[in-house]
Amino acid sequence: xxxxxxxxxxxxxxxxxxxxxxxxxxxxxxxxxxxxxxxxxxxxxxxxxxxxxxxxxxxxxxxxxxxxxxxxxxxxxxxxxxxxxxxxxxxxxxxxxxxxxxxxxxxxxxxxxxxxxxxxxxxxxxxxxxxxxxxxxxxxxxxxxxxxxxxxxxxxxxxxxxxxxxxxxxxxxxxxxxxxxxxxxxxxxxxxxxxxxxxxxxxxxxxxxxxxxxxxxxxxxxxxxxxxxxxxxxxxxxxxxxxxxxxxxxxxxxxxxxxxxxxxxxxxxxxxxxxxxxxxxxxxxxxxxxxxxxxxxxxxxxxxxxxxxxxxxxxxxxxxxxxxxxx
Length: 327
Fold this sequence. Notes:
By secondary structure, this protein is of the alpha+beta class. It has one domain. The chain has helices at residues 11-17, 58-68, 81-90, 115-124, 130-133, 147-166, 174-183, 200-205, 209-222, 241-249, 253-263, 272-280, 285-311, 316-326, and strands spanning 26-30, 49-55, 95-103, 106-114, 139-143, 171-173, 226-229, 234-237. Helix 10 (241-249) packs antiparallel against helix 12. The longest helix has 27 residues, at 285-311. It is an enzyme of class 2 (transferase). Its main location: mitochondrion. Belongs to the TAM41 family.
């Protein structure tokens, strides 16, 4: 599996992991603290380390983590692990973040997501939030033998390649492909309009071409719809309507549904396959796919950022309102 190629042997990451309950199906580190970026996030030594912990039983995991790391949580800790898990699963993108934590002399942020919700996101792109993180190079720190999770991780990478192909011309460079892939989870993200560096995607890809190649190389070589000229760093794909229809039919379910919503006029209620056949013949096929992506990413990024208000304990008024809603 391609993701295993980027497993980290870093002692520092495993030391940080030792501060948390062990029951993890997957743990990975990502972002500018792990992989070098250019621009404002280039200070890798002092950058915050970002982690995601995937757990089979969030209530049990949070219960143990509250005993070990009570001070990591916002006011929600007084409501207990069940309420924390409710907020995690039902608001935003299915992930609960504890930010701005000092651990082993490093500033870290960690998110917790249930294994089942992650698998759904990897396969169907319900939110394309953590699935989007996993389309870029990450450091795998721990992974158990969950076959369904491993298969979903691989499917997510293949879906990223197919989606990028639909938005690219017939011939393009590796860098073009990786920029398109890295940008998938930022399509429609309001943070790219307000606050985030507009060149963020370029800053992620340019210093890490080798890592992207390691992540996607075998998938590209095995894909029957692409001619991958490794020595030249060039790729050629089938842009015929037949080729694009084949690609559209393999897209994640939620993206297919959003494309159908973009193209389906009110009251017509065509089935998804009929819509995808029309899109395959449309000269603006790539733009339609991009609109479908935006329809997934925009709401999930806004809801997750709003949830951050509560989990980071920034506004007590909003916290009190949440408390009232939950009771």
